[in-house]
Design goal:
Number of helices: 3
Order of helices and strands: HHH
Strand content: under 5%
Distance between the termini: 42 Å
Radius of gyration: 18 Å
Helix content: 55-70%
Largest sheet: none
Length: 75
């Protein structure tokens, strides 16, 4: 596995350390790898959305569908 050195402001370093201390991540490397995976997934989703064309649904219809899906997850 390759290594990288990254400089960040103290506030960002503290943020990452709190995530590690909370048990969400095992290490700084684990945190950064997760961020990269999420970034890759986001870019892939944006490309997929862009390629899908213009939706025939209205913005209110889309928002209603998102709200319904969110409500179903919370039940």
């Amino acid at each position: 596995m390759a290594s990288m050195n990254v400089s960040v402001p103290e506030l960002m370093r503290d943020w990452v350390q709190r995530r590690i201390d909370s048990g969400q991540y095992a290490s700084v490397s684990d945190y950064v790898r997760d961020l990269i995976r999420r970034d890759q997934a986001l870019v892939d989703a944006l490309i997929k959305g862009e390629r899908s064309g213009i939706s025939k649904r209205s913005v209110p219809d889309i928002l209603c569908a998102v709200k319904s899906a969110s409500d179903a997850e919370n039940e």
